[in-house]
Structures are given as structure tokens and as C-alpha cells.
Amino acid sequence: MEEELNAPDGAQYTAEEPEEDAGDPGVRTVELIESAPGVRTASADCERGKGITHPLGCEWVDLSVSVRVKKRNKGERGVTMKQLVQPTSGYAQSGDLLAVMGPSGSGKTTLLDAIAGRMKSAAVGGSITFDGSVLTDSQHQAFVSYVAQEDSLLGVFTVSETLRMALRFRYGYNMKSEAELKSLESHALKLVGLTSAAGTKVGDIFRKGLSGGQKRRLSLAVELVKAPKVMVLDEPTSGLDSASAFGIMSSLTALAKLGHTVIATIHQPSSDVWTLFDKLLLLSEGRTLFFGESRAAVGYFGALGHQCPELSNPADFFLALINTDFPLHACDLGYLQRAYGKGAPAAAGSAYAGLLPHEVALAKRQKKHVDLDVLHAGKACGFLADCVTLSKRNLLNNLRNPGIFWVRFAMYTMLSLMIGLMYLELGDDFSPSSVLSRINILFFVAAFLVFMSVAVLPFFIIERATFLRERGNGSYSVGAFVLSNVSMALPGIFVIALASTALIVPLAKLNGFGIYLAALTAALFTAEGFMSLTGALVPHYIIGIALGAGVFGFFMLVEGFFIVKDDIPPWFIWVHYLAFHTYIFRAFMANEFEPIASFDELPGGAPAQFSSGRAVLEFYSMADVAIGRDIGIVVAFGFFFYAMYAVVLQLFHTGKR
Ligand SMILES: Nc1ncnc2c1ncn2[C@@H]1O[C@H](COP(=O)(O)OP(=O)(O)OP(=O)(O)O)[C@@H](O)[C@H]1O
């Protein structure tokens, strides 16, 4: 079972030397994986390129990335294209650890995103092939795992639970036994050095958990357990101390030696880490200054007149050389670019320079198409299994994250108790003034309890980052995500509505407990659907809260309380129909007033304004209320919001940038 972790395509991974592999004199043997009994280790089976009969990972030819930017010059308007990455060619094959280095802003992330197929709005030129084929989006997701620069983990889960869920998304429930899953989990933990932290919670704003470096390592392990063929990592060592950085890079090297292709950007590798790289791609200002065997880089730059001093870390030397932001040691970049472009590096035996190394050419001849069986192995479970995993996760997350359920539950309970006490035994009072009290309590519940759903938005937006990562890596579909969100939101909503109803209705002695509960549950369900949609539409929760509050405020204004429907100006009447608050208020009003046959007369025997509950409903233009239909409309709005939420996620939250 460890083999699945270690070998992305076990069938193609043998201990035999490939026919035409000339070997590599500069090979290092890596003994880094502490293997479980019976697990092949990197050192036992393969050195770079050896033992892998299927050596081609990915190749890019004349790859460039451009984005549209507004023209900046005075008097000029419109947009122009800005090239973030100039045409560059290269490859990373099974067994390789390719390090992409360059100063900040040099285009490393952009290049990585392009290779990993994560560009949405940018124009990507040239070609990128994996095992000789151009991949579709879904093939990309199965073939390539991407570890982004920012960690996006759910804070309420332990390290072990986080990995278990990643395994469930990969294997579902029938493919692996509990023992096999446990073994995969513990092997991944060993690889990233988190065994002792297996039971530690990731941590969030409510609780302390893993350190930044540990989170980084967990993000890596989450992708590692899926055994992807190609791993693309943006700054896997950022925030780590030098020993941890070396540990992580060692694990990645070992992984590469077992047949994976590993491409990673790295900012400031120590000299120990530098020795682990197989290949190096050096970028500055979006231009490639070097691509080739990392051990050839010192000689290459030496040949161009930039000799790395003895006992210096070559990584530090190169980065200082090509950093134009702080040009303390910076050289003439133009010269290096021209030299690279002219093929000077080929002479140094280091550059791609349009010449495919013989093993890549061989693999291209042997294997023209992507092995679809391998790709399908990337995701071995279906929609239902994903729904089960996501539902379990949502339920636990809702229960464990105080901000999602418990804080709201406490707020609703306290407020409902106050409402119940404020309007104590109102139902026994049939004086003319009780009409106003009844209408006010119902408006307050319909408007303010719904309004409080805004509080959940920040958590939706925090969790969106996790969704983006998982969707980008093909863990599950939008449908499974939304369906499990909806189904797991319902129990919490029902409990909150029940607690609120149980406090308000008996204390205030209102009519129709069951209908009141149904209307409040529907209202909270729909409000949460609206906030989910809002959360998907806005870039930041502050904007989302402002937007949600603004819309809810507007809906309250036109729901028929502050101004009766017949008096709403024609230019706003459409909002009255669009606002789901309207239907909640109508259902509450009908539920309360319909059963009241009469109200008391005014003191002195003068008739009151409203003789009966029916008269109140008529005054508020609510004579036509059919409670079931109105609650049904609220629920329909809820499903509409969730459907729109799914559409927005599908179209705009693809995990690409
Ligand atoms: N959508 C965009 N529009 C305009 N410029 C962009 C866009 N995306 C990135 N850039 C610019 O492209 C350059 C390269 O960005 P990129 O994030 O790839 O750099 P990087 O080398 O990964 O930097 P760092 O090491 O700091 O993460 C930067 O100058 C950045 O401002």
C-alpha cells in the first residue's frame, strides 16, 4: 500500500534500467525515506532516471504568460498586454526535483501556475505537455497536485483527521481497508515530520494549533497522500527553519526518486538544500537565465564571467547576481539573457536550448499519449462518497467551530429569551394595543433573526480558500460540495429555530407553534443560502457583511411592516415581491392573526381600529395569505440562492487565477 504513496504509476515503475538510459555520472543516492517494512526506499530502487521505464514528466516549449493591464501613460487609454513570463522551454521528468528560483516578483508563481494549468484570465502561449500530451482540465487535476503558497486548512481538525479526509476524497470508502489508510497516513506524516503532531488541531482564530511551518508541512502531506504523478509546489519551505526546510526538500527528493516529478519554487535555499536539486530554472523579471542540471549552474555562470566564490552557497550567489530590485551585486541581466538565448548554456551542458535530452526524446517516441488508466487512478471514488465525506466534515466543522454554530446559538437563544420576556403572555391580551405588540414582535423575528445570519459570512469566506484548493486539485465536484453544505446546514438551522421558537412562542403565548417553527426554519435556511451566495460573490468578508446588511435592510423596508404593500411606491414594489422577508412576515402574520376572532373595544365602548385578526390582515394587504404557499416561496428562494451559489462556484471559483 505504501507503493501507492510512493509510486504514482506502479505498473510502470521497475528496478530495471531503461534501454537507452545512458545514466548520469552526477547521480546522488538518496536515503531519505524511513520506510515501513516491505516498502521500497528511494535508495534501494532508483537513482535519478534509473529504474523508471517511463521517464517523461512534463515539458513546456516557448511557454509565456501575459495579462491585460490598463495603459499607464498619460493620455493613453485602454488596455495593453504585459508579459509576466517571457517564452521559456524546459522539462521535468520522473525522478527530477526541479527548483524554480528567482527574486521576488520574477514570475516563479506565474510560471508554476501555467505549468500546473491554473491560469484562468492570463494568456498562456507555447505548449505544455504531460507525457507527450496536452491535458484537459480534469486530466490536469488527476495528474498534477498543486501546493499553493498560502495554507488553506480547516482549523478545527487534527493533522490526522485532515489527512484522513484527503484520503477519503482520493479513495472513498471501499477501496482501502482501515489498516491501509492508517498506513498511508502515517507514512505521509513521516515524510513531512509531523508524526508527533498527528493529534494536534490545525488551529484558527479560536484556538492555537500548529505553527506556520507545521501547517506548511501538513499542506504538503495532504497532497502527498494522493500520490500524484506530478507535484507542483509554490514555496514549500517558506516559514520553515533550515532543518525543517531541509527535511521537507529531502522528502520531496526522495519522492522524486520514486518516480514522481516534483517542481518547486524556492526563495532562499540553504547550501544543504541546494545539493538536493536535480534541475534548476532561474528567473529574473520573467526571463529565464538558466535552465538545466543544477550542478552545472556554477560552471555555466563561471563561464560567463560570474564565478561563485568557493565555500559560498550557489543559491545565494545567483539570487544576488540577478536581483535588480536591490542591485548590490546585480550584474547585467541583458547579457545573461542574451547568453542564454544564444545557446551558450548548451556548451556548458546545462540548458534546454531547444535540444531534448535523449531520454526525453526516447520517452516521447515510446509513449505518445497519456495513460488514461493512470489519470483515472487520480480520483478513485465518486459523487456519493464525496458527499458523505464532505457532509461528515461539514457537520463536525459546524459543531466544532464556535463561530458557525455555538456563537449563533447563544445569540439567538439569548435574544429569543429577551423577546419572550418582553412580550410575556401577550397572547392573552386582546386589547387594541396588543395588535401593535403582536405585529412588532413578528416583524422583529422575521427581520432581525434573519439579519443575524450575516454573522456566519466570515466563516464561509475563510472556508472558501479550502474549497478552492481542493477543487483545483480535483478532490470533489461543486455539486457534492454544495449539496453537503446545504444538508449539513439544516440540522443546525433547525436547532436554532427550535430553541428560538420554544422560548418566544410559549412565553409570549403566540399562536401556531408548528407553523411559527416552520416559517422561522425556512427563513433561516434561506438567509443562510443568501449569505452563501454573497460569500461566493465578494472578494472579502467586510464587503460581504456590508452587502448582506444592505440587502437585508432594504428587504426589511419593503416587507410590508414599515409601509403596507398597497402604499409602496410603484418603483419599489418589485423589491417587495423579490424580498423573501415579505413571505416570512406574511406567514407569521397569518399564523398569529387568522385565529383571533375579535379584539376588545376601546375604553368607553368605542370600536377599536381592528375588530378581528382578519381585519388586521386586510389592513396590511395580507388577506390573500396562504401560509403553506408563502413558506414554500421562502424555501424556493433558499434553493434558488443555493443553486446560484453552485453556479458562481462552478464558474468563478475554479482554483485557477
Ligand atoms: N494578474 C496580474 N496582473 C498584473 N501583474 C501581475 C499579475 N499577476 C502577477 N503579476 C506580476 O507579475 C510578476 C510576477 O509575479 P509572481 O507572483 O509570479 O512572482 P514570484 O516570483 O512568484 O514572486 P514571490 O516570490 O514574491 O512570490 C509580479 O511583478 C506581479 O506583480
Automatic annotation (TrEMBL):
GO terms for molecular function: ABC-type transporter activity; ATP binding; ATP hydrolysis activity. Keywords: ATP-binding, Membrane, Nucleotide-binding, Transmembrane, Transmembrane helix, Transport. Pfam families: ABC2_membrane (PF01061), ABC2_membrane_7 (PF19055), ABC_tran (PF00005). Residues 67-310 form the ABC transporter domain. PROSITE patterns: ABC_TRANSPORTER_1 (PS00211), ABC_TRANSPORTER_2 (PS50893). GO terms for cellular component: membrane. It is found in: Membrane. InterPro entries: AAA+_ATPase, ABC2_TM, ABC_transporter-like_ATP-bd, ABC_transporter-like_CS, ABCG_dom, P-loop_NTPase, Plant_ABCG. Residues 1-25 are annotated as: Disordered. The chain crosses the membrane at residues 405-427, 439-462, 482-508, 515-535, 541-564, 571-589, 631-652. It comes from the Eukaryota. It is a multi-pass membrane protein. Belongs to the ABC transporter superfamily. ABCG family. Eye pigment precursor importer (TC 3.A.1.204) subfamily. This is ATP-binding cassette superfamily. It comes from Chrysochromulina tobinii.
